[in-house]
Specification:
The chain is of the alpha+beta class. 19% of the residues lie in helices and 32% in strands.
Length: 250
């Protein structure tokens, strides 16, 4: 069990950064980072971004120095490497996700790509009006975002259909939901109850801000700042932090 770090060589925000990784588990990585004052916001799904001024102290604390290519190989060998596209960020990784068959994982990925991944099977739409989020009832009585299975459509077509089914007010410009991110299931060994393609299936979340005059056909408006009390257990909820802090495209 070892923590590894590459030299500060990655420029961002006017400084250089290192990558801090574990070859064993995310839990080991989180424990090491917390013990040495690295904030959780520096976690990027499979590594921590560490500013150059912390490098020497982390090596002195036990992080083993390696070059950047070896960091990637360590993550690949350990199975902790998370694939993502350009302009994407892993906001949460859930190995052994309890809602999936044993041996599976779920990764929550924020995205600034225009298109959802090709293996997207469900789209959800986060409609925001002012400081409120539109939710609908699930069959089990809980709340969810309005959603639709993709089927033979493209994800963008499916989410456009969701938007059209919900909004009734004429608008000077048509709704144009933008991709907020997605949850990617990786299920190597499905059981009989798992209904989605394997090994990977994505569940995309799009965002759309409405004007104050816009009305909807159905659903319930929840204050966005309070919605976490009822929605935080949903696998897509980490993406809502981008909505709450305004970090999404309009």
């Amino acid at each position: 069990m070892t923590i590894w770090i590459d030299p500060p060589a990655w420029p961002a925000h006017g400084r250089l950064w290192s990558h801090l990784v574990s070859d064993t588990s995310y839990e080991e990585l989180h424990d090491f980072a917390a013990a040495h004052g690295i904030p959780r916001r520096g976690f990027e799904g499979d590594h921590y971004d560490v500013p150059q001024e912390r490098y020497a102290a982390l090596v002195a604390a036990g992080a083993a120095p390696v070059d950047g290519r070896e960091v990637v190989r360590i993550l690949q060998r350990s199975g902790l490497r998370i694939q993502k596209r350009k302009h994407e960020r892993v906001v949460e990784a859930v190995p052994g996700a309890p809602w999936l068959p044993p041996g599976s994982r779920a990764d929550v990925i924020a995205s600034r790509q225009d298109e959802a991944p090709a293996n997207t099977v469900v789209v959800r739409l986060a409609l925001v009006r002012g400081t409120e989020l539109l939710v609908v009832k699930r069959p089990d009585g809980g709340w969810d975002l309005p959603s639709r299975t993709v089927g033979d459509q493209q994800p963008a077509e499916a989410v456009a259909a969701v938007a059209q089914s919900l909004t009734v007010s004429p608008r000077p410009t048509p709704l144009s939901p933008t991709l907020l991110g997605y949850v990617r299931n990786t299920v190597p060994t499905p059981d009989r109850t798992y209904p989605w393609p394997v090994p990977k299936a994505c569940f995309a979340v799009y965002a759309q801000r409405l004007d104050a005059a816009d009305d909807v056909t159905h659903g319930t408006w929840l204050p966005l700042d309070d919605a976490g009390s009822q929605l935080s257990q949903r696998h897509w909820w980490p993406l809502m932090e981008h909505l709450r802090h305004g970090d999404h495209r309009r």
